[in-house]
Specification:
- The structure holds two protein chains of two kinds.
- By secondary structure, chain A is an alpha/beta fold.
- Chain A has two domains: 255 residues, no CATH class; 311 residues, Zn peptidases (Aminopeptidase, 3-Layer(aba) Sandwich), CATH 3.40.630.
- Chain A has 21 helices and 13 strands.
- In chain A, strands 2-3-5-4-6-10-8-9 form an eight-stranded mixed sheet, sandwiched between helices. Chain A has a three-stranded antiparallel sheet with strand order 1-13-12.
- In chain A, strand 2 and strand 3 form a beta hairpin.
- The relative contact order of chain A is 0.12.
- Chain B has a single domain, classed as Rossmann fold, CATH 3.40.50.
- Chain B contains nine helices and twelve strands.
- In chain B, the strands form three sheets. Chain B has a seven-stranded mixed sheet with strand order 3-2-1-4-8-9-12.
- Chain B is elongated and about 90 Å long.
- The relative contact order of chain B is 0.15.
- Classes of the chains: A alpha/beta, B alpha/beta.
- At the A-B interface, loops of A face strand 11 of B.
């Protein structure tokens, strides 16, 4: 009995096979989520918004385009945000105009966007509701981007402002915001509006009440073929599904082609191509959500419980093109329906996956996939717990062991934990703080210095087990690694569980790569092979694989060297996102996931 | 001999004539009521429930047009649609799309408005248990000769009607309230019309006499809304009340249309739901009940060119009592 209990989950036993089946079941469940009969059709949950029952009368498409050209000309002349022109244009349309200047120093230069010391101005105009008290507001924003981008968005914004000013049925104030330096400007505006952390930003003078919803426009051409909806925000947070439903309903009403992840919906779900199309759309959403950055200017609103989405106009190679007036009508309809809201959007789902715009998977359907992976860790931990309690039974059975009946010393278990976490702290703090020193000694730029320091610290962690065990007196015991593994398994289960609750995609992707190696890791496995497996499934390589898969999915595959450069830029973006907007992916990986992985690395080299 | 017969005839003619006047006087009170009241209640608030306010206001309009004055109408509206910020045509409530008919007009008197429309206030109005400080316009000052029309609209379910998103009135409470009214002799006959989902469940439990009830849908059916207006952006009316309004627009104070015509309003082909009615507690035959008995305030005026002899003490009492009755109910 004791022997049976001791070797409960050894390879080739029933338990071991059960765990493998669990893992495969989790993968199959996840992939099956994109299969159309397993998904639900989207529907409007909010009663106050009702159907698309409005009459859209916006017709100033030409005016929007001419405003776009003026904006472009003034932008070139000013070499940035044409503040005076924009203020005058908004005031001429009867809005209350305010500006906000902000400045921000990045921890190291951002090579993708080529900025380091950022200084800019946000300009926003408030359309006051003619009869309502100033308690609630809606926000429509367009970014002021350098070059040729997003001129039409600003032009449409001004044309809409003029049209909206003539209507009397607004129950909320409408704020028309043009932000500079995309997310940095948006962060400054939101912090100034909500009075959270106003260091470095001048506080806002004009306010309009609590914001109920926000829409961000990105439009860079005079005619478009389709509209893309972007939902993923900071830390993988998503707006209420009703906002996507509203967009989809109006696209259908006006006959506008709408896409999500840039992919158009297909009708043939029962064919292999149809299924792969839906699966690809869902995988793109999962990858975008996992990386935790805000994929549109709307992403920063979500933290303040403001439902927001970005709408991007795409000019593709299709026959049927739509003009700016149609987009204006779509926005008019959406804003009019949002105007009818009495409370914030809360009736529909906040956690979902979208294989297409008309089908969704809610949290109740996708969470079991993660649950199956967590069960593997917990069963392993249970097996170890039972195993650790079994030595007394062994003595009874008469089998002699060389080990001590009492537990291992606390030091042997605590040391790897502490050292792993210290390495994690080093991975989190040192790259940014040591960049000057690195730049002095090596011929690299600051960004490269930061990223390469991070990679170096990560690799240095691999050498740890050999070094720490030389320092410790006495050898590790059989009990020792089991206790460490039990602690590490429970720790990993808790970590992944909490991550999956907040950001399912991140939790699931980490679980898929970490669970198989950590559950089966023991010091008795062949060292070289298991070390290779552990390294290949470590968090850093997971990021690398995700980069390659993402590039494949957006139909822009990259070679290995390009992929490596992308991987390095992903790391630098992650650190920047954390420093600028408070994204939690980099701290989570550096301070918690990496130390956890290091603990298992320690177990592998336990002797 | 013939002269005696002739004199006998001459003497009996005034007596016969007084009998004739008596029967005519009896017929004057054949419907049993001398005054009309109306209690019209809309129980929903919020902009997307525009149609419930429009329902109530269209019944108010018909009832006023057919003669019931504001002093005899208790109008309860849970929200103000005409002045809602989202109304693109402020100070109007339309019942037909393309803004054909504005039922708000400029002489609407709302007695209970906004948060005053509660279950408690509704039951107090019906039973008369109001604090002494309540103004006359908020009271139902009916007596045992009053015919009362009660119209309810809003969101309902099987056995309940929702008041303002926070409370409900059940069909048992309503039945008990009517029983209180009967015992306190607060009505002569009562017509109860309800336009909600599963409306028929609300009159299932009535047990007091002289009640007639109509509902827009049976238990298990939903009452549907009629037309959206795209410029305003909401549904304007519910189907049942829309066709009820069309029917009532044809009725004028002298119309002889009776309750059987009212039961035929909005058959299933038009309403999608099946309207129901209940007449078992009503003593008269519905075919003899005029629409104007409940929806209008019709005074029967008879011009007499003859003098009436009041010397007989029995005759005098009858006519003076009738005369006094008419006076108190102005």
């Amino acid at each position: 009995m004791g022997l049976f209990m001791q070797h409960l989950c050894e390879p080739d036993t029933l338990c071991h096979h059960f765990l493998m089946v669990c893992y495969l079941a989790a993968i199959v469940w996840f992939m099956g989520l994109a299969f159309e009969p397993f998904t639900l059709r989207t529907y409007m949950s909010e009663n106050a918004m009702g159907s698309t029952m409005v009459e859209e009368r916006f017709s100033s498409g030409e005016r929007a385009l001419s405003l776009a050209k003026e904006f472009d000309a003034h932008k070139r002349k000013a070499g940035g945000m044409p503040m005076e022109w924009l203020v005058k244009a908004m005031q001429a349309r009867g809005l209350e105009v305010f500006t906000q200047s902000f400045s921000r120093k990045l921890p190291f230069p951002d090579e993708n966007k080529e900025r380091y010391m950022v200084r800019g101005t946000n300009v926003y105009g408030i359309l006051r509701a003619p009869r309502a008290p100033r308690t609630e507001a809606l926000v429509i924003t367009a970014p002021c981007s350098p070059g040729n981008s997003n001129n039409q968005a600003v032009g449409l914004l001004l044309a809409l402002a003029q049209y909206f000013r003539n209507q009397i049925f607004w129950a909320k104030d409408i704020i028309f915001l043009v932000n500079e330096h995309d997310l940095i400007g948006m962060q400054a505006w939101l912090e100034g509006y909500h009075h959270t952390n106003i260091t470095g930003y001048s506080p806002l003078q004009g306010r309009a009440g609590s914001i109920q919803a926000a829409l961000s426009l990105e439009l860079s051409s005079d005619v478009i073929t389709s509209l893309d909806l972007i939902l993923e925000g900071l830390n993988g947070q998503l707006p209420n599904l009703d906002l996507a439903n509203l967009f989809y309903a109006f696209c259908q009403k006006l006959g506008v082609l709408c896409t999500i992840q840039g992919k158009l919906q297909r009708n043939d779900w029962d064919t292999a191509e149809g299924y792969t199309h839906a699966a690809q759309t869902m995988m793109l959403m999962v990858l975008k959500q996992a990386c935790g950055r805000s994929w549109g200017d709307h992403g920063l609103f979500l933290r303040y419980h403001i439902e927001a989405a970005s709408i991007r106009g795409i000019n593709g190679f299709r026959h049927y093109k739509m003009d700016v007036a149609t987009i204006g009508r779509l926005l008019e309809g959406m804003v009019r329906k949002l105007n009818n809201l009495l409370e914030r959007l809360h009736q529909s789902y906040f956690f979902y996956l979208l294989p297409s715009l008309s089908r969704f998977v809610s949290i109740g359907y996708y969470m079991p996939a993660f649950g199956l992976l967590a069960v593997i860790l917990l069963l392993r931990a249970l097996d170890l717990w039972v195993n650790l309690g079994a030595p007394a039974l062994e003595a009874v059975d008469g089998v002699t062991e060389a080990e001590q009946p009492s537990g291992p010393g606390v030091l042997t278990v605590l040391t790897p934990v502490v050292i792993s976490h210290l390495t994690g702290v080093a991975l989190y703090l040192l790259p940014v703080h040591l960049q000057e020193m690195a730049v002095e000694h090596f011929p690299v730029s600051e960004t490269e210095a930061v990223v390469l320091t991070a990679v170096a610290i990560y690799t240095a962690g691999l050498a740890l087990p050999h070094n720490t065990q030389r320092l410790l007196s006495g050898e590790g015991t059989e009990q020792g690694w089991k206790v460490l593994k039990l602690t590490a398994l429970l720790y990993l289960a808790v970590l992944l569980g909490c991550t999956a609750l907040i950001n399912f995609s991140l939790g699931f992707i980490l679980a898929v790569t970490l669970v198989p190696i950590t559950a089966s890791m023991t010091p008795h496995m062949p060292k070289a092979l298991s070390a290779l497996a552990m390294v290949l499934l470590s968090p850093a390589f997971t990021i690398l694989y995700c980069v390659f898969i993402y590039q494949e999915l957006i139909e822009a595959p990259v070679s290995v060297s390009e992929g490596w450069m992308l991987f390095l830029s992903v790391i630098s973006q992650g650190i920047l996102d954390h420093a600028l907007y408070g994204s939690l992916v980099y701290p989570l990986l550096a301070l918690f996931i990496y130390p956890c992985w290091l603990m298992f690395w320690n177990i592998l080299f336990w002797s | 001999m013939r002269i005696f017969a002739f004199i006998h005839l001459l003497v009996s003619i005034p007596h016969g004539y007084s009998n004739y006047v008596e029967t005519k006087a009896g017929q004057f009170f054949s419907s049993g009521h001398t005054n009309n009241w109306a209690v019209l209640v809309c129980t929903s608030r919020f902009w997307f429930n525009y149609r419930h306010v429009a329902n109530t206001l269209s019944v108010y309009r018909s009832v006023k047009r057919l003669g019931i004055p504001d002093s005899h109408i208790v109008l309860m509206l849970a929200d103000d649609m005409a002045c809602n910020y989202r109304n693109p045509k402020p100070a109007t409530v339309f019942s037909h799309k393309n803004m054909e008919l504005n039922v708000y007009g400029d002489d609407v008197e709302v007695d209970y408005r906004g948060y005053e429309v509660t279950v408690e206030n509704f039951l107090r109005v019906l039973t008369g248990r109001l604090p002494p400080s309540t103004p006359r316009s908020k009271r139902l000052l009916s007596d045992d000769r009053s015919n009362i029309l009660i119209y309810l609209t809003g969101h309902g379910g099987n056995g309940f009607l929702k008041f303002q998103d926070s409370e409900e009135i059940s069909n048992m409470e309503l039945a008990d309230a009517f029983e209180q009214m009967w015992q306190k002799r607060r009505y002569n006959e009562l017509l109860f019309i309800i336009d909600t989902c599963q409306g028929a469940s609300m009159y299932e439990r009535f047990y007091s006499p002289n009640l007639m009830a109509l509902a827009s849908s049976q238990v298990g059916e939903d009452s549907l809304s009629h037309q959206p207006d795209l410029a305003i952006g909401v549904h304007l009316m519910d189907k049942y009340t829309f066709y009820l309004l069309e029917f009532l627009e044809e009725v004028h104070p002298a119309s002889q249309a009776n309750m059987n015509d009212l039961f035929k309003v909005c058959p299933q082909s038009q309403c999608v739901s099946t309207p129901g009615h209940r007449t078992d507690l009503f003593q008269r035959d519905p075919g003899s009940v005029l629409i104007t008995d409940f929806f209008g305030s019709v005074r029967k005026v008879e011009i007499t060119k003859d003098t009436i002899n009041l010397t007989s003490p029995v005759d005098r009492k009858k006519y003076i009592t009738g005369f006094l009755c008419c006076q108190t109910n102005l």
